[in-house]
Amino acid sequence: MEQTLWDHLPLLVRSNSKESVEYILQTLWRTRKTGLDAADRHVIHDVLQLQNDSDLDPLLVCLRTLIRRCVYENIGKDEIQKLFPNEVLPEIQRLLTLLLQKFQREWREEEIRDQVGFPRLKAMTWDMANQESTEAMNPVAVINLKVSD
After folding, report:
1. pLDDT tens for residues 120-135?
2. Residue 57 contacts by C-beta under 8 Å, 6 or more apart in sequence?
């Protein structure tokens, strides 16, 4: 039987405290662009008292998915708990809901600050053309980008 990502959330119960799970979420947010380095992976592995390294990645994918949905989708604080399917233990739902609600606004504001000043891609087209050189015609791709501020 195939496991879903949600099946890995009970591993969070192995952490010693709410602060440990908070640390994991904050670390995942902090490393959202670069990915976890070996030191961060080791700390999270130890916090969760995992016996298998193979258990860590599906859990991290699930948590990153939750973080992304809370930050990038238009999900209100009161709707976060609705992200969890029924099979997720109620105590894990409550804990993650509280923590995601705690950080959602801060993370959204940080993401908006990171985006300021960068244009957004509105449309892109491309075509093939020949570039004339002294010896031959060379095919090149001509890319047109339409951006907005």
Report:
1. 788 889 888 887 766 7
2. none
